[in-house]
Amino acid sequence: MTSAKVKLRKPARADGTCQVQMQVIIERKVWVDNLKINWPPELFDEELGQCLASLPPAERGPDYKAMLEGLTAAAGGTVQLLARRVRDHNLAIGKALAKANEVFVVWRLSDQTLTLERFKQEYSTSGSKDDFCAYYKAKVQERFRKEKISVTTRKNHLSTYNALVKFRPFIPFSTLTTDFADEFDAYLKKHVPGANTRWGRHKDVKTYLSLARKDRKKFEDPYADFKNKEVKGQWKPLRTAELEKLEAYYKMCAPRTNHRRVLARFLFNCCSSLRLGDLKNIENATIENQEMTWKMHKTYAKTLQESMLPLTYRALGYLKDAQEEEGLPGFYNYADPTSNRLLVAIGQRLGIESRMHHHVGRETFATEFIRRGGKVEVLQKLMGHSKITTTMKYVHVDADMKRAAIEQLNAQDIGAELAKLAMA
């Protein structure tokens, strides 16, 4: 049994109006959609589900004149504007009922069982059947509601949505040709600074195009001939000498001071490579025999991927300090803007030239790992990357590393020459 009917939420509010709602019933389960319309119950026909602009003289009560004057003033001061508002409200009510009935009809024709949860999903995405922008936004909200993406991912995906609608407010699936990706890229180059930000926008669009294809939307692949190029990030690692300065300063800071708190977490990251989201939730990890086990929050799926990360003695030392000093299972977590301000202040105080930011930790770990002779394929696993090309974005080969590599070759050549002389 399915039904959709427009009703008023009673009793009336202090201003004498009631919320106009659509009540949907499916298999005795009820869902109410607030239509964002407030109207006096005296001027609402519940049988027809419509707002009225006036009543016949015989049905007018003692407060009718004052009520009508108030509605007219709220609508703009004229009877014509009040009539227009009534038409707009009734149009919105009619659209809501039409959307609901469209879902009912489609599911009856499909000969499948319609659940209330499925109805809400179909109702919220109605209108996204032809428009990619509408589909994109509705799908972001659906994935967030089902806990398939995190708050941060939702924010990033909606930023891409905002870029899409500024590029083209309406994008029918039928218009998604191979020119779309190039035209969107040209728009992004004019309005979005940063190659990696643009790369991320394209990546998000491709994600929701893939989801649309799974939802049986038919369209040409706009990215078939487009190469989405990712470049090295804007964050540069700390130099070894700068890292040593921070470690020395950390030891000088008194326990539970702002600088020591923020450095404990930052230096731990420089020694461990954890993503910021996992670092903030480190209290949920298990640490035994220098190995940390936790559920990675990168994908935020219901079944999160369990990961293991060996930790260095230095990393464990920062964590142990924080736990003992704060009485917490993890680090003292500042809000990101606060931690960044503190890191900048520390950098200025110590004369550190590299840009101090909480994102620099993973870059520093990756570069130091390679600097000390680590293998990039091992680094890939430590950082939790599926592709080694992603790992290479974090590795920054500086002049000292190039000099050290050549010195190592020179030492090997000299050693080989000495061995030949010894054998002669």
Automatic annotation (TrEMBL):
Gene3D superfamilies recorded: 1.10.150.130, Intergrase catalytic core
Pfam families found in the cross-reference section: Phage_int_SAM_5, Phage_integrase
PANTHER family on file: INTEGRASE_RECOMBINASE PROTEIN MJ0367-RELATED, PHAGE INTEGRASE-RELATED
InterPro entries the record matches: DNA_brk_join_enz (IPR011010), Integrase-like_cat_sf (IPR013762), Integrase_catalytic (IPR002104), Integrase_recombinase_N (IPR010998), SAM-like_dom (IPR025269), Tyrosine_recombinase_XerCD (IPR050090)
Keyword DNA-binding: yes
Organism lineage: Bacteria, Pseudomonadati, Bacteroidota, Cytophagia, Cytophagales
Family assignment from sequence similarity: Belongs to the 'phage' integrase family.
Name used for this protein in its record: Site-specific integrase
Domain of life: Bacteria
Keywords from the UniProt entry: DNA recombination, DNA-binding
Organism: Hymenobacter negativus
Residues in Tyr recombinase domain copies: 233-407
SUPFAM superfamilies referenced in this protein's UniProt entry, alphabetically: DNA breaking-rejoining enzymes
